[in-house]
Amino acid sequence: VFQKWVNREISNFDYLIQLNTMAGRTYNDLAQYPVFPWILRDYTSEELDLNNPAVFRDLSKPIGVVNEKNAKTVKEKYISFVRYENFEDPLGMIDKFHYGTHYSNAAGVMHYLIRVEPFTTLHIQLQSGRFDCADRQFHSIPATWQALMDTPNDVKELIPEFFYFPEFLENQNGFNLGQLQMSKEVVNDVVLPKWARSPEDFIYKHRKALESEYVSAHLHEWIDLIFGYKQRGPAAVEALNVFY
């Protein structure tokens, strides 16, 4: 599979799906759902220029420190993590970590897929029979990216649906997802980047970005973090990539 990918005989999307499968990730288990990377960092321009390297996320860094200003906080947390995370660990049994949450978990999958069943029902069950408050829901792609840049506490990567399934961005079932506290904006369809004219247009351009020359040249750096030698040990510590 690796050689086929290197020879450009399979797409980046197909390679990532196969890597996820080989790592034991599956659509049948929300706790081990396939994980895909955030690949862009430009969610505000009117047009998306895939020939400009500046529109892409740095794939060599974990999402928590793509914004350089978060790196200091993350390093400090690792050095004195018990104080930062309020962990009760009198025996010193918990290994040090940079992030108290994970880049992929069941709640994160339900967060992204809240508008489509069976994930809507699963989300409601998780929230004791109701939708979570609107401000915590997935309501905007630009806002979600901005939140990742503003704080290293949320480190969710993406799911494969961001590259092929426009329906998850639409509230086709008409669920009452509430309204945002500050703006009073009603949460309905997911707010798209300015460069996307529709959910289908977003998926088309996002998939094009995944298969772009820039991502093809740098995707291995992200794979090292998630599936490779930077998952644990000294290489993970150096890369600020240690998870609780």
TrEMBL record:
CDD domains: Beach. The keyword Protein transport does not apply. It comes from Molothrus ater. This is NBEL1 protein. It holds the Pfam family Beach. GO terms for biological process: intracellular protein localization. The lineage of its organism: Eukaryota, Metazoa, Chordata, Craniata, Vertebrata. Residues 1-244 form the BEACH domain. It comes from the Eukaryota. Signal peptide: none annotated. Keywords: WD repeat. One of its GO terms (molecular function) is protein kinase binding. One of its GO terms (cellular component) is membrane. Gene3D superfamilies: BEACH domain.
